[in-house]
Task: structure prediction
Amino acid sequence: MADEVVLLGFWPSTYALRLRIALAEKGIKYEYKEEDVYNIKSQLLLESNPVHKKIPVLIHNGKPVNESLIALQYIDETWNDKAPLLPSDPYLRSQARFWADFVDNKVAVFGRKIWMTKGDEQEEAKKGLLDCLELLEGELGEKPYFGGEALGFVDVALVPFYNWFSMYEKFGNFSIEAERPQFVAWGKRCMLKESVSKSLPDQQKLYDFFPQYKRIIGIE
Result:
């Protein structure tokens, strides 16, 4: 019996995009269902994630898996014969999880503040983001990807945020590439991967959506 895989997402969500990339890397066929997360959430979403009531949700053979990093690990462990994302060594696995958590608790937070704030607060957010990217450049080192020669757990967790860099630069009036060229070079390498480029939304579509998004969340 074939696996039944459903992904509940919202097209610009960096967290849902992680799962789209991972499923593409693994070559897993799935049904994608777009959620109207700011208006009427589907009954399937409410039943699948009754605690947080948010996307993304991965539903595998009727069983929901919530929270993007948990679902990302689930994908890797379930289809472990295809393009592994996490290393087999326990210590290296722990380090990959650490940096993925760093993305959520640092990179995502500073990125969001850049387009949500102005003045000194925005300047602090820009510095915070650049400091985070400097640390990530150190972790990347001379490797083409955080996973080594192929996309790994950290790459998949992080690259959807790279897709938002033009938005950060627009609202923050700065150049990330000028400050962190090694990191941007990594992002460009990732974008050459079909699993990444075909999963991430078009930049113009993000631009067009953003004014509406800011009104929805009440910051403009």
Remarks:
- The chain has a mean pLDDT of 95.
- Residues 144 and 150 are 8 Å apart (CA to CA).
